[in-house]
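ingest -> validate -> predict -> emit
validate: passed (alphabet ok, no gaps, 373 aa)
predict: started
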Amino acid sequence: MSFGFKAIAAAALSLASLATGGLAQAADLPVKAAKKAPDLPFFLVIDDRVTFSYIFSAAQPGAWSLKPDGTINSKTTKQVYSFTHFDVWAYGTNFFTISMYKSDHNDPAAPCTQTGGIVSPAAGFAFTPAACAGATEIYGLFRSTLGWNQLFDTKTFSVGPLHNISFEAGMDANTEDRYNSAAKRSVVGGLEFAFDLPYKGYFNVSPMVYWEFANHTSFAQCGSGWNTPATACIADGNTSYKPTWTVETNYYMDLGFLPPNMQFFAISGRAAWIGTKGSDTEPLPASVVNGVYPTKVEFNSEPIRLTFDAAKAAWGDKYSHMVDVWVAYRYWQNKFGLDHNNAAACTGTVNGTRVSTGACTESSLYSGITVKF
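emit:
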């Protein structure tokens, strides 16, 4: 039920109570006190879900190995366990998700610095064989909006397909047990333009400012064993990037044009661009000689996801989207802003030649099951 409809319903109940009381008093009859109209709940919609999903060929900067035939394997599978919360209240929305990503052995946990090996300070930073478990990463994201129509009690910002304009703010954070021990912290702020699509669908576009103000990486830390020149390393490995721009988009639409006995499917997707944010070891200046490169525009997307409403198909409309099964395609270029052709984490030496490993470009099938509770 929409906020507007609930507000009208509450007003109608209130008027009905007043009218009944007035008629009774006019007839000079004993009456009970009119009941107060029920208050609207603070949250008009609350949607909590858990998901298990599987990325078939993910990529992780710095994680690659050589196959027996001498070609590069930069792919790793990832199991993903997620909790997602979404709510709607009188003035806007809140979205929060936290996920655990578990990689296979081609993306190793510490102390391995690369697949199957560690760099040993005791051996003069020499490479020694090792067997490490796949890395585990925890990633959280939060976004909140305040709608202009709700804030200013107007419909001015609903024109044609434009449904609303909102202020938007949020943050991202992660931690992981890889050798580089990344610990990203970023904030965003800007606007969201919400458009209606057919079949109760939507398309949202959010141009915002993005600031990754902190991110630790051992690969840039002085004395880490990666033979980083003193002019291209950071004492504690803590980078601080420059503020830049970002554009985030997402859409959803039921396939309502299908015959009634097949209306169990929906499509959705997302895409985000993050602008250049300095060098890949900011605040150090870019220097090809020292292996420090400018960051590139990052493109992170899931262009399309096909969702099957299994609960509706099995138990009817009452249980719609209680259990969803889905399959998607995932594409991520210049992962974390690293230049996929040049950055140290994206390249490697094979037969004496420095080449791109593909570790900073992700192109994968992605599938999972989501349960609402």
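Confidence is low (pLDDT under 50) at residues 1-32.
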